[in-house]
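Hello forum,

I keep getting stuck at the same step: I have a sequence, I want structure tokens, and every attempt I make locally crashes halfway through. Rather than fight my setup again tonight, could one of you with a working pipeline run this one for me? It's a single chain of 252 residues.
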Amino acid sequence: MDEVYEHHLFTDFILAPEFVRKCVIATNIAETSITIDGVPFIIYSEEVKEMSYDGKCKMQRLQEFKIRCTNAEQLKGRARRTGPDICYCLYSEHDYLSFQEYSTPEIRRVSFDSSILKMISMVLNDSRKFPFVEPPDMAAIDSALFRLQEQVVLSTIDCLLTSIGSILARLPGDVSIGKTFIYTCIFQYVNLVLIMASTLSIQSPFLSFLQFNPDTITRRRSILSNHHDPFALLNLFDKKIYVKAEGPNTPT
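Reply #2:
Ran it on my machine without issues. Output:
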């Protein structure tokens, strides 16, 4: 872990000195995963970002949703574990009453392709009849099967694993990226595609609110590619390695 990042990470958990006010800005990880001492006031909005599958783009995306009633109750108790607190909710009571009571189960929000693939590899071939605790929509299962057949991971006749499907079932992560890894090994472009796949597996490093900034547009020209975003991300990675090697004062 980067030493500077590690230092800033753990200073959040240290009590502020007397007469000093500390402000902690956190994502919804603060809802249940962490408790920070000395936080008497909590302010939170009505929106949260959750990972969900975009069927149109055929990829998982972080999308904004209204928080649920259970989220709001969890957030109210963030500081109460260590002392009294006051919560400021940036929504009205009317809005609160319109919230869903519970979050949508993750199994109904994310791509089901990898799960179906793992199930078939364990000879649980009929996923429609599997006794899920929170069953997904049948349409989601059918769509996942169709996508796996489309990528030649499953046979179109009996929905059994193909040769490449057997390999993919042993790999973690997204099916499309896993398939890319396999072909990468065949054509011996491992380092190049590993970097590209890694950048595609995370949220875009390009900040949308800066996309119309003239200075940003000028700086981005050197990394843009006619082969679109994957190669632009690869160029960005190369630029980062160059700057890191040459030092912080390197012109970009």
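The longest strand covers residues 47-54. If your local run keeps crashing, start a new thread with the error log.
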